[in-house]
């Protein structure tokens, strides 16, 4: 990597971490890629201070045209480095190459333009006209304003997508940001910081990037009274801590959390196409996507047939080198994550499940380095099992039977989560009806793709609070002020 990857961005300057450096590694080979800046509590303190000052005393919050220009400039700068960023993402995240042409890189970079356009066309002021509340003639207007300093805390699975899906709307809305990325993918964030510092006119302090090996810096960001809003993506357990800590200062939180989404195959669906697609979905990026459908619900009478189709597809997919443009399922991010998945595979067996395919690490000799888990299908469990209820975050699909549309909806909704879902059926009206009954934030019907800058994404229940992307996602970063003038 020729670009600077071992610096924090604090108050417009690229600086070393006062904690020294820590290693970032390639999950496909376990090779050390290099060093990242290890930010400390002092670095975080300076970053928050810079963001606060930039919000309170620069013209950033009030200049929509300048913000839109800066966002487009950032998009262009990132696009100019697309090849370099692509190779970095494949190496640091273990992301299959084909995904970098979509959600792992190109799509979120391009989406910055959507937020620039939105900022320009947005109705920042709405006139409510005259009224005479309590006999007092008044002219009323509603103004939308940035919230202030945003603390953005992100995970490792789709780092560019999540970093930019927070930065884009937060900046378009006029906020300043302190970004704290996951310790597993510091380089994806530090290159963003260096490009912002060196190739855009974004003023000092408006964006700060603090990489660190220490999760405690996330908690510090949540607790600091100078931060007005926390935008968090990560696990439900951490999201709960964030919400609890933010409650002390009654701070606004926006949470994108875990999922255990259902893929429903109705009895009039093309079983082969649907179950193959479900297998493709769960194997993508080794299942490390919060909205991936990890419970396959099929008509009871066709359970064995459906399991055979899904297992055949998963076996054919297998694992592969993320550099190869045909690879769908690369490595998982770390040894720790692999152990966590293996723990769930053991649990599945204890709970009475069997592996129709996969079930552990691949046997091939060229996978003895790196963190690999074979695409796995688990049969024989009920929706009450922990394996079917808890997020595994690996290429692991649990297949469950249903007894018709009502039962499929019941099983799908019988989950602490409600992030996403899919319905496949021959009769579109009927499939749409089932989709409408799912308690989940995004649903795909017959392969429809909801992922896009203008589509709000987020969860019901323990999958989160609020929405990212779309107009709803932009408005998460706004306050509402009403002014009434006596006339
Ligand atoms: P994680 O919760 O362990 O960490 C996420 C981020 O939070 C990291 O930057 C981490 O350093 C930070 N953090 C850790 N403890 C903290 C604390 N007490 N206070 C504040 N910040 C803290 O999650 P992960 O393992 O990095 O990512 C995987 C999880 O993320 C999965 O559960 C997945 O479903 C979820 N996820 C959700 C979405 C979504 O949009 N809903 C998207 C991607 C990932």
TrEMBL record:
Q: Where is each Aldehyde dehydrogenase domain found?
A: 17-483
The UniProt entry's coiled-coil ranges are: none
| Single GO term (MF) | oxidoreductase activity, acting on the aldehyde or oxo group of donors, NAD or NADP as acceptor
Please list the residues that make up the active site. Answer: 256
InterPro entries assigned: Ald_DH/histidinol_DH, Ald_DH_C, Ald_DH_CS_GLU, Ald_DH_N, Aldehyde_dehydrogenase_Rv0768, Aldehyde_DH_dom
Recorded hits in Pfam families, A to Z, give:
Aldedh
State whether keyword Oxidoreductase applies.
yes
Q: Which UniProt keywords apply?
A: Oxidoreductase
* SUPFAM superfamilies, per the entry: ALDH-like
The protein's matches in NCBIfam families, at most eight in alphabetical order, are given as: aldehy_Rv0768 (TIGR04284)
Q: Per the similarity annotation, which family is this?
A: Belongs to the aldehyde dehydrogenase family.
Q: What is this protein called?
A: Aldehyde dehydrogenase
Could you tell me which species this protein originates from? Answer: Actinomadura barringtoniae
């Amino acid at each position: 990597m020729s670009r600077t990857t071992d610096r924090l961005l604090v108050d417009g300057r690229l600086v070393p971490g006062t904690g020294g450096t820590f290693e970032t590694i390639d999950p496909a080979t376990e090779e050390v890629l290099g060093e990242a800046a290890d930010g400390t509590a002092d670095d975080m303190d300076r970053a928050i201070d810079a963001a606060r000052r930039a919000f309170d005393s620069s013209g950033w919050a009030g200049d929509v045209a300048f913000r839109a220009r800066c966002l487009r400039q950032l998009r262009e700068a990132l696009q100019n480095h697309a090849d370099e960023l692509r190779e970095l993402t494949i190496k640091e995240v273990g992301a299959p190459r084909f995904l970098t042409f979509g959600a792992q890189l190109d799509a979120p970079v391009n989406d910055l333009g959507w937020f620039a356009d939105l900022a320009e066309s947005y109705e920042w002021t709405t006139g409510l006209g005259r009224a005479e509340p309590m006999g007092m003639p008044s002219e009323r207007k509603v103004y939308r304003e940035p919230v202030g300093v945003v603390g953005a805390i992100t995970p490792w699975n789709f780092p560019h997508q999540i970093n930019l899906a927070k930065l884009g709307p937060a900046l378009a809305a006029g906020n300043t940001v302190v970004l704290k990325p996951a310790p597993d993918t510091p380089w994806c964030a530090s290159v963003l910081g260096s490009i912002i510092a060196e190739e855009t006119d974004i003023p000092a302090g408006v964006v700060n990037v603090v990489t660190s090996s220490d999760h405690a810096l996330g908690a510090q960001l949540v607790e600091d009274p100078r931060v007005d809003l926390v935008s968090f993506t990560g696990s439900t357990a951490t999201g709960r801590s964030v919400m609890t800590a933010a409650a002390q200062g009654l701070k606004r939180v926006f949470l994108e959390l875990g999922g255990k989404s259902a893929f429903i195959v109705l009895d009039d669906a093309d079983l082969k196409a649907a179950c193959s697609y479900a297998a493709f979905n769960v194997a993508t990026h080794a299942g490390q996507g919060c909205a991936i459908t990890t419970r396959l619900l099929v008509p009871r009478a066709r359970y064995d047939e459906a399991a055979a189709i899904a297992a055949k597809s998963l076996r054919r997919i297998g694992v592969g080198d993320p550099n190869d443009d045909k690879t769908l399922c690369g490595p998982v991010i770390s040894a720790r994550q692999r152990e966590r998945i293996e723990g769930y595979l053991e649990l599945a067996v204890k709970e009475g499940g069997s592996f129709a395919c996969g079930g552990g690490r691949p046997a091939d000799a060229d996978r003895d380095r790196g963190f690999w888990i074979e695409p796995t299908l688990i049969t024989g469990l009920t929706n009450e099992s922990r394996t079917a209820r808890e997020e595994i975050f690996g290429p692991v699909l649990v297949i469950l039977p249903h007894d018709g549309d009502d039962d499929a909806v019941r099983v799908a909704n019988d989950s602490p989560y409600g992030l996403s879902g899919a319905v496949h059926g021959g009769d579109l009206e009927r499939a749409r009806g089932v989709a409408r009954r799912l308690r989940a934030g995004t649903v795909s019907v017959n392969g429809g793709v909801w992922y896009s800058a203008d589509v709000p994404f987020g969860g019901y229940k323990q999958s989160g609070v609020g929405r990212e992307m779309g107009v709803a996602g932009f408005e998460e970063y706004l306050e509402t002020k009403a002014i009434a003038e006596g006339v």
